[in-house]
Amino acid sequence: MGKIAAIILAAGYSSRMGLYKPLLPLASSLVLENSILNFYKAGIDDVRVVIGYKADLLKNVLERWHTKAIVNRNYDRGMYSSVQAGVLSLTPETEAFFVLPADYPFVTCDTIQKMIEVFRGSPYDVIYPVFNEKKGHPPLISSTLRPDILESEPQDGLREILGRTQKNVELPVDDAGIMLDLDSEDDYRKILPASLAHYPCRSECEKILQTYNVSNQVLRHTREVARVAGIISEYLNSRGFYIHLGLVMASALLHDIAKGEKYHPQKGQQIIASLDYPEVAEVIATHMDLPAIYRDTINEHAVVYLADKMVREDKIVSLTARMTDRMAYCTNNAIARKSIIRRLETAINIQKNIESKLNVNFNELFNYG
């Protein structure tokens, strides 16, 4: 009896989502981890993940779970190139394989096991899981179709290849997860567990900023802070953290919504809290002065605080350069100088803590030296 393998496709850009899907947190795992673990729980020990975009980040996740990484250097050609890369990597003893896009993280191990049971006792080339009379992911594909998949790139991709065979069957399953993909940020927000804060997506953040007439100068700053905070968060999640990327991005985009007003962090907090985003509002309130409870652990508040200090106007600078720059503006104000030193020393300590956890130098990561 041959082996059953699983191919998870995680090489794409996540361009429609806006957030990088494989590293998004769920209740107690990342999106990519959830799919890997469900295959392992179903008894499949040959799980292969096809990576391309941000491959170095995903390699860290796969190493942690002892999962094979298949690098698709042609990932910019689309999903079928990843299908071919995954299928090409399979060993000769592989009898059949699942193909699952990484944005379908909720397929249960029971569904996977039922599909394997049907395959073992049947002549079928393809088994489709079906929920409410609709086919979903992942199909289980016989290795007899491997040459067809590798030989050409049909216009309709893998679906066209699988549709050519008459030896297929639809298996009804009680599993809505086979239909549940994270195609957009709205899809992700709909399935957020209670442990993760609700937040406005990027387009909603932009509308909020427009409503409050935020200047172009401030917009450029907040967008760069969001980009920097997103990079830091993705690196952290690739190393075993579960930073809420949506919360970080929304908080970073909105943190200066009241810029120019007195006590603007508190004013921004009030604005966003009134829109029913209390957790985002709390991060905004702490972006200038980080309370002690957020300084010693790596969390969303600390990430946004650090990213804000790393961005001067819309350019990334070292924290040392930022301190020199800020101190030059208040040479005759001892109270202001003391405040600047305190805030930037807090940021420096956060940066050192993150660098030690990631074994990454920020100067190399952001190239601001």
UniProtKB/TrEMBL annotation:
Every HD/PDEase domain range: 214-339
SMART domains given in the database record: HDc
SUPFAM superfamilies cross-referenced by the UniProt entry: HD-domain/PDEase-like, Nucleotide-diphospho-sugar transferases
Keywords for the protein's UniProt record, in alphabetical order: Nucleotidyltransferase, Transferase
Listed Gene3D superfamilies: Hypothetical protein af1432, Spore Coat Polysaccharide Biosynthesis Protein SpsA, Chain A
Transmembrane segments: none
Superkingdom of origin: Bacteria
InterPro entries: HD/PDEase_dom, HD_domain, MobA-like_NTP_Trfase, Mop-rel, Nucleotide-diphossugar_trans
Pfam families noted in UniProt: HD (PF01966), NTP_transf_3 (PF12804)
MF-aspect GO terms: molybdenum cofactor guanylyltransferase activity
Keyword Cell inner membrane: no
Enzyme class, spelled out: transferase
NCBIfam families: NTPtran_DVU1551
This protein's name: Molybdenum cofactor guanylyltransferase
Organism: Sporomusa acidovorans (strain ATCC 49682 / DSM 3132 / Mol)
Lineage, broadest ranks: Bacteria, Bacillati, Bacillota, Negativicutes, Selenomonadales
Gene name of this polypeptide: mobA_3
